Amino acid sequence: MNNHTQEHGTTVPSSRANIRATIPIAIVAAVAGLLFGYDTGVISGAILFLKTDFHLSATGEEFVVASVLVGAVLGAMAGGSLADRFGRRKMLIVAAMVFAAAAIVTAITPNMGILIAGRIGIGLAIGSASFTAPLYISEIAPARIRGALVSLNQLAITSGIVVAYLVDFLFAKSGDWRAMFGFAVIPAAILLIGMLFMPKSPRWLMSRGLQEEADKAMERLHENADKEVTEVAQDLASKPTGIVKLWSPVLRLALIVGIGLAIFQQITGINTIIYYAPTIFEMAGIHSAAVAILATFGVGIVNVVMTIVAIRLIDKAGRRPLLLIGTAGMVISLGALGLVFHLHNISGALAWITLGSLMVYVASFAIGLGPVFWLLISEIYPLIVRGRAMSLATIMNWAANLLVTLTFLSLIQWAGRGNTFWIYGVIGIGTWVFIYKLVPETKGRSLESIEQGWSGAKHSPQEPTSS
Ligand code: BGC
Fold this sequence. Notes:
Elements: H1 16-41, H2 43-53, H3 58-86, H4 88-108, H5 112-140, H6 146-172, H7 177-182, H8 185-196, H9 202-207, H10 211-221, H11 225-238, H12 243-246, H13 249-267, H14 270-283, H15 289-313, H16 319-342, H17 348-367, H18 369-379, H19 383-415, H20 417-438, H21 447-455
Bound molecules: beta-D-glucopyranose (BGC).
């Protein structure tokens, strides 16, 4: 748990009452993460059947998988200003409606065009929610438990992926991809109904000058509401707003770190596994679609379990060790995967080695780049630019995701299976160096201390943390 007890320069004790009030709100908002995971993960199983039903080429297949990502880039772009204008809660409600409507469209689509349009619609909702949900959670959370609550969103993403794999598996025998897509209506309805009962973000209300409503929301969330209100007001008054601030020299390094992590989180290849795992197992000689989907389910479970491990370690071991160890594990397993695919005639034993390497790779992502990227971008920016800076990093994350997804199958055709995984491995080495050189340790530091770290004469990411 983050020990941000000195937020805004003063001690803010988080009582049990605060925690009891905010955890359910964070859980409801994290259902958006569940939809993010479900709607991105479901394609891995559905694509096996879409491929035959619609006679897709490699490019066509990439197009179907990528359509959701195109929408997500656009959704992340619009998300920042819309969430500032209409509020975080309203944006999550609208996203839930779009999630539900698009799930129905993709389930009943008569043709490929409408399917792609529906997937782009889902992408719009994912793109804006992927950024608005952590933002909303971070704004309602007591400072002391913000780290854990924000990471709950990544846990929801990984759980959503597992639910998608499970649903894919259940419908694999009948090849019913329509049911796979339609299932998302259930979590969308839960998010929609749940968010209707949630409070608006008091910080957003204050930033819009809606003081009376903000006071009420604060009272619901915090026992010492008056104090919180005064602190947020002082914080808002002490800093100028404006687009220029985002590009100020003081923030440049913070932006480079956020955008760099956003891109590296993707171009080390995680979603080639998340979206194409059954396809990769088919390449490795597992020819039953049901078995391939079941093996993928195992990969998803490892992702969830290791995310829980990460949440427990993140405030004890720190962000940097998790990132460095996780990225090193990814590099080693990518090396092994590349090696296996360089051998001809992958037989039974080699198929198991492929599965083992994939497990290690996903486990390594789940303790490092997976949760730590989303947590760090909610920590390293000052409150006044946090929304826009998070939105920018999120856009880059989805754009990089799109790039990898669009090129993966073509890369395999062009460079070969083994070399493709080795390319991701080499990028992983670059990622490790980037983290080692530039990413600061934020464990146990107040948000102000992190903020001051960027403006210090010489930024020293490895500096020992002060508690
Ligand atoms: C990433 C997603 C990825 C997921 C896998 C998230 O942090 O942003 O692209 O699919 O983790 O667990």
